[in-house]
Amino acid sequence: MIVLVLNCGSSSIKYQVIDIDDNSNALLAKGLVDRIGLSEGSLTHKPSGKEKYEVRMPIPDHTTGISLVLEALTDATHGVISSLNEIKAVGHRVAHGGEYFKSSALIDEQAKENIRSLFEIAPLHNPANLEGVLSIEKVLPGVPQVGVFDTSFHQSIPAINYLYALPYEYYDKYRVRKYGFHGTSHKYVAKIGAEFAGLDINNSKIITCHVGNGGSITAVLNGKSFDTSMGFSPLDGLVMGTRCGNVDASAITYIGEREGMNLSELNSMMNKKSGVYGMTGLSSDMRDIDAAYESGNEKAIVARDMYYNRVKKFVGEYAAEMGGVDLVIFTGGVGENSADLRRYVCKNMEFMGIKLNDAVNDVTHGDNAIISTDDSKVKVAVIATNEELVIATDTYELTKNL
Questions:
Q1: Which of 97, 95, 87, 103 has the alpha carbon at shortest distance from 136?
Q2: Where are the alpha helices (H) located in 240-349, listed in sequence order?
Q3: Which pLDDT value is given to residue 222?
């Protein structure tokens, strides 16, 4: 069965086309639509056994990006299928499932309505995720679609970590609680990382750092999510591209009162105008922040150091919470490719048993590698995430008998 996987992030679309059955899977193509909404976007299409195809152009929204993907897949030169009719199912990464979805699910009208009902608490992702679903319905009518939810992996988090110290009635009435996100990535890299490091995942303490334009850290105790940095929405935790992460709620109400901002405007400010973009006024893309950092831009220096330092704080917090750590994993666009981030996080962490192999760290970009020294008590690894394979597998299992 040929499955198309769409993973729509806040400023990107990762995709894969996978031929999958009960015993094997074959990657036909993968690619990335990047820098959506910025002055120049890009499509990088990598068909298996063929030359890479790239195009640079403004990509104002996710609908435009998905159209570019479908054109690339069926192109006579660099495509991998002759017709879109060859696609038998489509799997979507969906950021927020609330308490509606405790596992992956077929997308029907009720599922779409549930995804839409969560727009307010996942404003950068759920609209893009649903846009992908609706676009596919137009191009491939009748083809089954599956949602794989970032929140599902975190359903194992205990109440002491998912409840907030607010009046309990708001959990009873509105299910206000920590949900966590990037669950598909955290689940995948913890499993692969444990195998790579020679650990028994069912008897392990692992900290997974998914760091990119959006980012989160998860404490994975014996293979299950025990705590995670994102909360009720993807806003909480790390400093991100346009999100503020951890912040005193009173600072937000104070700004709102002074500026005469309503709740919608405050929500937009925290989600879309903050993070490294808000701090610098330059960009939400860490590559642009890196360039400004190297040029001596003072705001960029503070923003990047804060972005890095927040990761470090959560590593220490979760090691304490689990009573130690066996393995720290870096993944995501920045986690996999930024030697500077990994060096910053691991610096002066020998007291925790972490010793970084700088020579290996400096040359590791996107490939699976152990980047700690041989005598490091805690192993540190870079593991390339593959949320798309998890999504394809769940999509296949839910649609193969339809």
A1: 87
A2: 249-259, 263-272, 275-280, 286-294, 298-322, 332-337, 339-346
A3: 98
3-class DSSP state for residue 170? helix
Q: What is the enclosing helix (H) or strand (E) of 129?
A: helix 126-139
CA pair distance 204, 213, nearest whole angstrom: 28
Residue 239, C-beta contacts closer than 8 angstroms, at least 6 positions apart: 245, 275, 276, 303, 306, 307, 310
Reported as type and span, the H/E element at residue 381 is strand 379-382
- Please say whether the dihedral angle defined by the alpha carbons of residues 97, 34, 394 and 137, taken in this order, is positive or negative: positive
* Angle at alpha carbon of residue 66, lines to 63 and 67, rounded to 5°: 85
Amino acid residing at 241: G
- Residue 288 backbone dihedrals phi, psi, to 5 degrees: -70, -40
Band of pLDDT at residue 163, cut at 50, 70 and 90: very high
Chain centroid to CA 270: how far?
18
Confirm whether pTM is higher than 0.90: no
**Ramachandran angles phi, psi of 121, nearest 5°:** -105, 0
Is residue 10 over pLDDT 80?
no
Burial of 13 (0-12, 13-18, 19+ CB in 10 A): buried
Cα dihedral angle (369, 373, 376, 378), rounded to 10 degrees? -20
Query: Minimal CA–CA distance to 31: which of 54, 1, 62?
Result: 54
Instruction: Give yes or no for a contact between 216 and 228, defined as CB atoms under 8 angstroms apart.
Output: yes
Q: What is the tens place of the pLDDT at every residue in 196-209?
A: 999 999 999 999 99
Containing 138, the helix (H) or strand (E) segment is helix 126-139
Q: How many CB atoms lie within 10 A of CB 140?
A: 18
| Average of per-residue pLDDT values in the chain | 94
* Among 398, 353, 401, CA closest to 373: 353
Helix (H, G, I), strand (E, B) or coil at 228: strand
Encode pLDDT of 19-66 as tens digits.
999 999 999 999 999 998 888 999 999 999 999 999 999 999 887 888
Give the strand pairing for 2-8 and 89-94.
parallel
Please confirm, yes or no, whether 150 is among the known catalytic residues.
yes
According to DSSP, the residues that pair with 45 across neighbouring strands are: 31, 53
Catalytic residue among 34, 150, 227, 326: 150
